[in-house]
Amino acid sequence: MSKIALITGATSGIGEACAHTFAQQGYNLVLLARRAEKLAQVAHHLEDKYAITIKQLIGDVRDRKQITETLESLPEEWKKIEVLVNNAGLSQGLEPIDKGNVDDWDNMIDTNVKGLLYVTKVVSNWMILNQSGHIVNIGSIAGKEVYPNGNVYCASKHAVDALNQAMRIDLLPHGIKVTAINPGMVETEFSLVRFKGDEERAKKVYEGVEPLIADDIADAIWYVVSRPKHVNINDMLIMPTAQASATQVVRKG
Ligand code: NDP
Ligand code: 8X3
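^ thats the input. predicted complex w/ NDP below
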């Protein structure tokens, strides 16, 4: 069987773009997300276009029991995962710490930190059996800097930054590569989710700026994954040209 990549959060944005890139490169795919219909659309489109096979896993990374059982339900030959892209994640709200919604905080921590850990726990053990593999963690500029009202989202991505470094140390004896890809502003469903469906507010985030697109990040992920066996890219920070830091953005007009 061809190499297998497992991508979490494959129904939109960066995860969906990654699924396209890996399919194009001939990888069989395990795609995971909550929206079953959207996941089926992505999978069928790719299977029609490329000579690959896809396993669709419907699951919520926040639910430890469900996500562990869902992953473990894969047939044995599908557990030989070469690449794991820990991409599922979200932001909810943009409020000062005293006004933040505690349910939003739980959601971000449960998804971005605990969800990433639950998936990694299962898949890293499979990689250890193979003494091979590459884990790509999607962090953020928010994992390198903190910006006003970004508090808990930034904290969750700082945790991803720490876990990325820790995983690399722990998995070193097993020949498993670990890389963080840290994007700045990428136009996806991210802001729509952050602002809970408020399209006006989400659109404003990208007004007058040329943000990154999901394919830019998929391209970077493919670059790190396609390096020779003896080369690992530890950490990559990728910004739109119009963005210098988390808060410094040049807008036209
Ligand atoms: P999108 O909202 O477009 O995609 C997020 C994906 O994550 C969706 O496929 C969604 O699928 C999935 N997801 C969310 N929650 C869960 C969950 N509980 N269980 C399983 N899947 C889940 O956003 P992006 O593509 O932009 O985000 C991808 C990653 O990139 C995130 O980790 C984000 O923090 C990070 N990032 C984004 C940046 C940006 O500016 N867009 C910049 C820096 C980092 P579904 O709803 O079907 O479950
Ligand atoms: C997403 C980008 O700038 O909202 O991680 O933190 S930002």
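Residues 39 and 101 are 29 Å apart (CA to CA).
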